Amino acid sequence: MLKRMKLTDAEMREFAEVFAYYDYGDDEIGMVPYYPGYPDRTSLVNYLVAMIRTANEYNGVYATSENKEGILILTDTTHPYPGIAMFKMVWRMARALGFKNFSGIIKKFQAGGASLEKTYRDSKKSFVQIELLAVKKEYQGKGFMRPLVETAFEVAKQSSLPVIVSTDARLKKDKYEHIGMKHVNTRTLGEKSFMYDLVRE
Fold first, then answer.
1. Which of 40, 53, 91, 175 has the fewest CB atoms within 10 Å, counting from its CB?
2. What's the CATH code of the domain at 161?
3. pLDDT tens across 125-168, in order?
4. Alpha helices per DSSP H over the chain
């Protein structure tokens, strides 16, 4: 299993930018256009930095090596972050987008029906969720995604929990399937905008 590591401010922003500037191709647009300021992605980057920063503060970032080619952030319902951590993260994310825009993004995520996370929470089922996985551009396509996903599997195995993830890119969905996750649902959020729910029981 990969180790948890601390990120610098520059590294947090680099990973946020990798995630924000993902190339969806011609058939999809993902969730990116729904963030304020699009096509400028500054607010989205700041939103992602808010998530990464909070996980970083509470020792929640796994990295592929000391070189930090890629990172993974998980949530585990059996070992949740402290309440203050969640408050910090939501506050930071809302400030990054503006509170009205933040509320709008949450509603947009819910527009296509219940996510796997909500379904599990409503049924009181524990799980590990991949919240963010990013690999630096120069290391993409070189196998660094696999050890990150497998670390999620190992964390979940310790408590006999399923691993879930939702992604807004078909290519990412295909990669998760290749590593061992099962695609169980596609939610349509808008024209050329989809969320793919996957699980590994």
1. 40
2. 3.40.630
3. 999 999 999 999 999 999 999 999 999 999 999 999 999 999 99
4. 9-20, 42-57, 83-97, 99-110, 116-122, 145-158, 170-179
- Written as six digits, the tokens of 97 are 């987008």
Give the Cα separation of 177 and 167 in Å (integer): 12
- The answer to whether position 15 is within a domain reads yes
Number of domains in the chain: 1
Q: For residue 5, how many other CB atoms are within 10 A of its CB?
A: 16
Residue 31 is encoded by which pair of tokens?
A: 């969730």
Q: What is the DSSP string of 61-84?
A: EEESSTT-SEEEEEEETTSPPPHH
CA-nearest of 30, 45, 47, 11 to 170 is 30
Q: Is residue 183 part of a domain?
A: no
Please check whether residue 162 is in contact with residue 156, taking contact to mean a CB–CB distance below 8 angstroms: yes
Q: Alpha-carbon distance 147 to 137, whole Å?
A: 17
